[in-house]
From TrEMBL:
This is TIGR00153 family protein. SUPFAM superfamilies: PhoU-like (SSF109755). The keyword Coiled coil applies. It comes from the Bacteria. Gene3D superfamilies: Phosphate transport system protein phou homolog 2, domain 2. Belongs to the UPF0111 family. It comes from Microbulbifer variabilis. Residues 40-67 form a coiled coil. Keywords: Coiled coil.
Length: 225
């Protein structure tokens, strides 16, 4: 009997809510692109509106997480370990949390992106969000993986997706080094406190890609069991 059929015997599958949670986490992450566009244009009012959307998505992700934790069956009644799914859920949740932290800090500081950093900042944010998007694509393979019993073509597809996730995360790492170096060259001309928080936001954007990469790592662990 297919693993998914076994799961259906014992109640609703947790996979769709897991996928919905990742989609919501990515929604928060993806809004960082228009958010930074607004910051770069100096449109703080627009940035504040987008920050509210990011917070709302993060709250929805929290609701899904809470519901999943309350209703996740014991491992005996699921095709995958309960603890593995909770670890995956935690990794996904960190994507939404980090996006919220970035937007909250930038709005709270009324952050301005120095002109010489603007193009690179846009590329950096897009790269981190692309990592989150790839994590979502990989997670959306979970139900097919269950149908296949974690074997065959679906496993090959999922492994290729996680490898692409590795490449995207490495690209974000390189961009982080590059934008830090660019900020270093101009920091003496900027207010020191602004510089400190710019470094903090750059660090957190890099962490966003790391968090999305962790989702792929958790998926790889599921495939390896």
């Amino acid at each position: 009997m297919a693993l998914s059929n076994i799961a259906n015997l014992f109640g609703r599958s947790p996979i769709k809510p897991i996928e919905k949670h990742m989609a919501t986490a990515h929604e928060a992450s993806a809004d960082l692109i228009p958010f930074f566009d607004a910051l770069i244009k100096g449109d703080l009012k627009e940035a504040e509106q987008i920050q509210l959307r990011i917070s709302a998505a993060e709250n929805r992700a929290d609701d899904i997480k809470r519901d999943l934790r309350l209703h996740l069956p014991d491992s005996l009644f699921m095709p995958v370990s309960r603890s593995d799914l909770l670890e995956l859920l935690h990794a996904q949740d960190e994507v939404a949390n980090t996006a919220q932290d970035i937007a909250g800090l930038a709005v709270g500081r009324k952050m301005q992106i120095p002109e010489s950093l603007q193009s690179l900042m846009t590329t950096f944010v897009e790269s981190a969000v692309a990592t989150s998007a790839q994590a979502l694509r990989a997670i959306n393979e979970l139900d097919e993986l269950l149908e296949s019993g974690f074997a065959g073509r679906e496993v090959t597809i999922a492994k290729r997706m996680t490898e692409e996730l590795d490449e995207l995360e490495r690209k974000s790492d390189k961009l982080e080094v590059e934008i830090r170096a660019s900020l270093f060259t101009i920091e003496k001309d900027l207010p020191p406190v602004d510089v400190m928080f710019l470094y903090r936001v750059i660090e957190w954007i890099g962490e966003l890609a790391d968090r999305a990469h962790s989702v792929g790592n958790r998926l790889q662990l599921l495939l390896a069991r």
